[in-house]
Q: What sequence folds into this?
């Protein structure tokens, strides 16, 4: 195995380990703040960027989840393109 290939492999392995650690820290922060976040919000990390997906009840909860994820040291950016909010019709019992 070439030295360059080994160095690249080591770097990639370190990045995966760091992303896994960040994912666990963000998931923990979400669950501590609001136990239902741990059940309904999925977390993936790639290169320090955290992707939040799943379903929350309100836009306020969505903002809270983003703030919590950003508060974790090492998080570079937060992508919420997969995070959805329930939409209730006016006058519905869920309002």
A:
């Amino acid at each position: 195995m070439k030295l360059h290939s080994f160095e690249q492999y080591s770097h990639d392995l370190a990045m995966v380990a760091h992303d896994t650690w960040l994912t666990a820290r963000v998931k923990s922060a979400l669950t501590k703040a609001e136990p239902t976040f741990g059940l309904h919000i999925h977390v993936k990390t790639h290169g320090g960027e955290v992707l939040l997906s799943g379903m929350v009840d309100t836009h306020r909860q969505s903002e809270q989840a983003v703030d919590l994820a950003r508060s974790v040291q090492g998080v570079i950016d937060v992508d919420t393109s997969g995070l959805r909010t329930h939409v209730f019709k006016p006058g519905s019992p869920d309002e």
